[in-house]
Amino acid sequence: MTHLAQPLPGLDDIAPLVAPANVPGQSIQAQFEAFHHLNPWVLRHLESLTRDAIAKGFTRIGIGMLFELLRYRYGEATRGDEFRLNNNYRSRYVRLIVDRHPEWSGLFELRALRAA
User: Fold this and answer.
1) CB-hemisphere CA count at 13 Å for 11?
2) 3-class SS of residue 54
3) Per-residue model confidence as pLDDT tens digits over 47-69
4) Residue of 18, 54, 17, 41 lying closest to 93 (CA atoms)
5) Higher model confidence: residue 112 or residue 99?
6) What are 5-19's pLDDT values in tens digits?
7) Structural domain of 48
8) How many whole angstroms from its chain centre is CA 93?
9) Crossing angle of helices 28-38/40-55, nearest 10°?
10) How many domains does the chain have?
């Protein structure tokens, strides 16, 4: 018998993503802020995934890994709703996570932002 990983707590609060209005010429930062405002649970789950990785002994964590795990878990929790988590938001989410949890700053590599 194989051991299956237990789902992370709070999977029940995953909701269908709400896409913000598309505003031509809007900066990535403004797009991210609108997306985050409409989908606050995404940050909570990224933080939960980070806590889980720390508990498992990770000393370095890639935001790309967390995004893919969240996409997978979203697929487990919802039916028929494509998960559209924009990769342009990765750097913004990692900065938000580190701002909220400065003790995690050494876990993530922060690169210069390409566009505001």
Assistant:
1) 15
2) helix
3) 999 999 999 999 999 999 999 99
4) 41
5) 99
6) 444 445 566 777 777
7) 39-116
8) 6
9) 90
10) 1
CA–CA gap between residue 65 and residue 56 (Å, rounded): 15
Quick one: pLDDT at residue 18? 75
Q: Is position 50 within any domain?
A: yes
Which residue, 50, 46, 52, 53, is CA-closest to 92?
46
**Domain assignment of residue 22, yes or no:** no
In a domain, 48, yes or no: yes
The single-letter code of the amino acid at 33 is E
69 belongs to a structural domain: yes
| Pairwise CA distance, residues 114 & 3, whole Å | 42
State pLDDT tens for residues 26-42: 898 999 999 899 889 89
Model's pTM, two decimal places? 0.81
